[in-house]
Amino acid sequence: MTETRYAVSTARPTVPADRPTVPVKWWAALGATVLAVQVAVVVRWMTGPYFHRVDPGPRFGLRRNGQPTASPAGHATAGAGSRPQLWWKPMSDKRIQLWCVYSVFGFIAIFLVGWVALAGFVPPPSPLDGAERIAELYEHRLLGVRVGLVLCIFASALLLPWGGAICAQMLRIEGSRAPLVWAWIAAQGCVVIEFVYPCTFWLVAAFRTEDSSRVLTFNDLGWLPFLGVVCTGMFQMVALAVLTLRDRRPDPVFPRWFAYFQLWCAVGVGCTFGVYIFKSGPLAFNGVLGFWVPVCVYFIWVVTTTLVTARAINNDDGADTHVALAERITVVENLLAKQLPTGVESASTASQHSPVSTGAMRTDGIRA
């Protein structure tokens, strides 16, 4: 009987000579530079001459008798009703909404740089490519894939304020009891996840490229949901169309053609169902109907919806009503603070000599 012995090798696997090395020192220098610039900007912001403390406006405290109080100069009173001064002038609601809705252009710019320029995912690989071919593609642009997809993940967060600005205009149509608005913002959160998780799967594929079958699995796990999960986006388009058609006011929030545009976009992105079924042809995830048409339609939808929403925000006269009211209150308080002593003395003198004057003053106050 022969005895078979197995030798166990403890040597580490050799690294291919053509594999790119990680530029640790270069990235460390870049990170230190960015950190130094951020510290300098914060210090300049706190101590520089371009940012001065401004008064955010009056905020009233309450006396024991329930009467509002404010200082003669319009500043906040000390105590529970006081408000600290700010380093910047408060923005109006309309400006905040415009910043939110225009933030999507930052998402588009950063995502295109990371996904197209650095990662090189356009055009997408063929579903018929084998594991060795896909692993070779990742190895060829390994650093670009990692950096570009990290940028895409961070850029996806800019879709949240964009969706919030759109929902603020949708509330003007549906009112306080707005099931479609709340469902729309929930779908927007799902859309952000649908951008983040495919990028994460691609990053996992690029993290360890030694196992080609593993790279192929995570590559498919990124492409299929990225293009195939469009149900939430289609719901958003249909919901916007329904609300636009329901708006019967003479001056609607969104124009009527915007509803039909939403329905057209829903049909355009809905043809990606074939990415789960076909590996070749126009319905595969590198085909005309599986990739190019839905991606272009979604890009057109985002840009058009942004511009139409920005127009609706600019036409919203009630967005800054409370800001204008606060400014008027401040002006009236300043005038009353200057005229209050004289007015009180004259009123008290008149009330002592004529009891009818008190009733007249009350009547005038009620009419005012």
TrEMBL record:
Membrane spanning residue stretches: 26-46, 99-122, 142-168, 180-203, 223-245, 257-278, 284-303
Highest rank taxon of the organism: Bacteria
Keyword entries, A-Z: Membrane, Transmembrane, Transmembrane helix
Chain segments carrying region Disordered: 62-81, 346-368
Compositionally skewed regions (Polar residues) per UniProt: 346-357
Name under which the protein is recorded: Uncharacterized protein
